Structure of Hydroxysteroid 11-beta-dehydrogenase 1-like protein:
Amino acid sequence: MGLCLKLSAVVGISAALFALYMSGPTFSVESLKGARILVTGASTGIGEQIAYHLAKTGAQIVITARRGNVLEQVVEKCLALGAQKAMYIPADMSVASDPEKVVRFAVEQLGGLDYLILNHIGPSPFAFWDGDVEHTRWLMQVNFLSYVQMAWKAIPTLEGSKGSIIVVSSMLGRMCSPFVGPYSATKFALNGFFGTMQHELAMKKSNVTVSICTLGLIDTDSAMEKVRGYTNMTAYPASDAALQIIKAGVTRQSEIFYPWFTYYLLNVKDWFPYLSDTVIRGFYSYEAQT
Ligand SMILES: NC(=O)c1ccc[n+]([C@@H]2O[C@H](COP(=O)([O-])OP(=O)(O)OC[C@H]3O[C@@H](n4cnc5c(N)ncnc54)[C@H](OP(=O)(O)O)[C@@H]3O)[C@@H](O)[C@H]2O)c1
Ligand SMILES: *[C@@H]1O[C@H](CO)[C@@H](O)[C@H](O)[C@H]1NC(C)=O
Ligand SMILES: *[C@@H]1O[C@H](CO)[C@@H](O)[C@H](O)[C@H]1NC(C)=O
């Protein structure tokens, strides 16, 4: 083989590998056409954006949150965008029986389930911990236990359809920050629980995969309302975050990070614990809280 040929082969292969590395797993929107999907916390924010992306691919969706009147409007928009089916069920995830009721409704209405997208969160103050244990208990049910209940209820159906569970988590489920004690606790709980579930499903050679999505600050109304005045951190668009969440499930990745640098921040902070604690506290203005 001539030198030129060898060199061009090396260059060609390197370029191909680089392109593969840069592109990540390929994401085909087509694969979602007709897919049966349940999205929680879809009346607003990232969940609403997830519903719209799915609608455009021609999926069949059930959405849930507490406010039926708002869900109804999201459903109408989903149908206009091209959803094969779009339905809603109002539910309050702090009520112990609602998580399972929602899964049952979706499976019945859609005749099965391909994706379960767990995204809802209950409102929680952005403030110094004030000793409100009842709020923490309530938030644990809404943000964590209801996810466990829904996942467990959906797994038998997802086994049959080779389906996926997508869990929307946060950087605050992997690192600690001031003013978010109860919220952060629920996200750490999610990461711990669903990380275990990933191992167990793989060991059982289950058909079901779990994707955990770690998000940084996203520009939803509820998040912006909280951090306004306290920090100047850049918030990333909810519609982009929603697309990355869907992509994580379709490509069956165990973890994704959005925006991309959150992955590096989370890993590098452990190498410099003192520095990173100082930087984290420096993000927030103490005066704004007192
Ligand atoms: N935005 C960010 O900066 C950010 C950063 C990292 C991670 N995340 C994660 O991304 C996900 C979505 O966040 P987001 O900012 O889009 O939230 P959001 O705008 O506050 O939306 C929360 C959703 O949950 C529903 N919900 C609230 N309480 C509920 C309850 N008791 N029962 C059932 N549904 C309830 C809300 O609808 P109703 O009021 O109608 O019930 C709404 O649809 C969350 O898992 C969050 O932790 C967000
Ligand atoms: C996984 O899916 C296959 C069909 O694709 C099915 O035969 C098998 O029973 C499923 N596994 C479980 C645990 O349900
Ligand atoms: C955000 O930036 C503005 C203008 O640069 C500054 O006055 C303010 O103190 C900053 N706020 C915080 C919380 O860092």
Observations:
- The CA atoms of residues 231 and 283 lie 6 Å apart.
